[in-house]
Here is the input.
Amino acid sequence: MGTNKIILRVLTVLFFAATPLSVVGQSSSEIDKLCQSVFKEWNLPGMSIVVVKDGKVVFLEGYGKSTYKPDGEDITPDTQFVIASTSKAFTSALLATIMDKYPVKWSDTVVNHLPDFRLYDKWVTSNFLVKDIMVHKTGFNAYAADDLPHFGYNRDEIYTLLRHIEPSYSFRTTYAYNNVLYTVSAKIIEKYSGMSWDDAIVKNIYTPLQMTSSTTGNRSFFTSTKLAKGHRHYKDGDSIKFALREDIQNGYRWLSAIAPAGFVISTARDMGNWLIMHLDGGVFNGTRIISKENHSYLFTPQTISGWDSTTVNNYAQGWTIEQSSSGRLIRHTGLAYGYTALVGMVPELKMGFAILTNAGNTTNPHLAIARELIEMYRGKDEKNWREHYLSQFMRSTARGTARESKDSIAPKRGELYTGSYFKEDFGDVKVSLKEGRLLFSLKDATGELKHKNGDTFTVNIAGAGSIEVQFFPGINIPIESLTFKIGDPIGKFYKRENLR
Here is the structure.
């Protein structure tokens, strides 16, 4: 390497914090060209990216705007984004730091640490291990209980409601992606740390990793001046468009309730430190953040999540481990309320990346950059990933509206459905009749019941969409109970007048 290049690298490191763009290495211009091309092809509102290699940041840049309203600012490496489900890896790492300090092991039963923990099945409750919490094979359907925050249930209440959700699969047999179980990990973290999940992540992760611009949505979603605004991102004919999301209250309510699974806020610059720590086996700047044993376990495959003729994907503790003939890629995507993120590492190359956008819909542009980036560092050009992911998205069709059964059986008289229906821990569903309309109310959620068929209705809940509500007759009672469908069965609410 020439003397001038050596001097340039030294100056870059010395003035890293002051420069808006920090690049090191021979591929920086190629990475920038790739990012600019994908950014334009996908018409993204904003994007920030960091690439690390051999323990150093080799590329750090921002593109676009935080919002295209008059107060919008240029995206920089210090712009904050909600990183959605890539937050799961933060909770698993945080739990690992707790294990390093307190008597908690992956092989422990959860009830040994949380005596009030209960699932629907008593045997599963007794045999549910700490290592089972975050690997998506509890027996629930995919995204089980994700609608509950839209009714107004908070994180602690959802933890209690887990005992009412009847699983659709046998324990440890079926991969089904889930958010709410990460609340259980947060409970263990909070018990031993003596502080909230939000504060524990600052003390154990952000501070030692010098992630000075990272926070949680519970703390900063409405107050941060550095947070990019979330956008809808959608196909419109032969073009791709974006629009500012206005449903931020719904977004906050949902993300706050599942925060350990999806409400970390970070920047590309901070994510560089996060990647450097993981690629060095849990060590950052010479300081061990996570023990070697517990750090290694974070990436130990637990659940087969998918496979084809060339690739096997396993889910570990907050990470997907993709293994193919090309090598190993550790990654996770995140998508929620106008934000999308992809965080990945290729251990054999000692390389990692984080791609953050304020566009919610698809991770295809992120994957296009990631796959091209990996090939760039491997010195191979096996596939046009940009064209692959873009054409895949443009070929996709809009999700069709589910066809509902015809209204062939008339409902009963409206007043027969009215009343207060109670279920332990859930509270009361109130059904009232006003000017000929049946109204549904549960905690913060209200809406009109629209007849579907027989004793089945639907109600539109803000954030959750159309929810089916089914009423049931009793013995010599026209209507005795009801339930509403959110994936897995949650049981019946019974009329209070019949509980006496």
